[in-house]
Amino acid sequence: MPHDHPHHDTDLDPMTARVKALETLLVGKGLVDPAAIDAIVETYAHRVGPQNGASVVARAWTDPEFAGWLARDATAAIASMGFTGRQGEHMQAVFNTDDTHNLVVCTLCSCYPWPVLGLPPVWYKSPPYRARAVREPRAVLAEFGLTLPATTRIRVWDSTAELRYLVVPQRPAGTAGWSAERLAGLVTREAMIGTGLARSPGSAP
pTM here? Predict the structure, then answer.
């Protein structure tokens, strides 16, 4: 979080302004080291992010043995790739299929697997998403631009402090022979939460 913000706090949204005021207070009292805050944000914004989860998914797509391990013990399988840490101690992978689509929400707060997905998106923490994803998941997905066939079952998983989820989207058609590294470029954060699908080969960046 920058400490030399280029504009006045009055330009910030109320929540950001409150966070900045609290940070300033804690730094002023010597309770928080601003360099430590910047290091944490830098880590989760650029070094720990959805690219980790994308690597896990791509490996599952290309390695059936790993996919089986991921299904049985996601925590251990993910840790074997070096992705560990707070908020990722207890993981479960849920796999999309032709007839089932998985969606993750945290109805009580905003529990989220930081080591594999990085910083949670703002909408994931919002009360409307947390409430409506359970009551009307199909409508919520449509608002994200994902309209599923009426025959597709939507299964909603509620994350908690004890268990967090990673959605393994289906591998896109037309990717036979692709390496895991190339496939990882098709895996989005939204696909691993369940509000989207993996990119098609032609739409890869």
Answer: 0.77
Which parts of the chain have pLDDT scores under 50?
1-10
**Active-site option among 109, 126, 179, 200:** 109
Q: Which of 80, 106, 179, 200 is catalytic?
A: 106
Q: What is the pLDDT of residue 79?
A: 94
Contact between residue 51 and residue 184 where contact means Cβ atoms under 8 Å apart: yes
Tokens 């300033």: give the residue.
24
Residue written as token pair 């998985």: 102
Strand 153-158 to strand 91-95: parallel, antiparallel, or no bridges (unpaired)? unpaired
Is there a contact between 101 and 155 (Cβ–Cβ < 8 Å)?
yes
How far apart CA 98 and CA 100 sit, in angstroms, is: 6
Active site residue 110: yes
Give the pLDDT score at 21.
75
What number of CA atoms fall less than 13 Å from residue 55's CA on the CB side?
Answer: 15
pLDDT tens string 113-156: 888 998 889 999 999 999 999 999 999 999 999 999 999 999 99
User: Among 146, 185, 144, which residue's Cα sits nearest to residue 58?
Assistant: 185
Active site annotation includes 111: yes
**Which residue is catalytic, options 80, 111, 159, 179?**
111
Domains of the chain: 12-46 (no CATH), 49-203 (3.90.330.10)
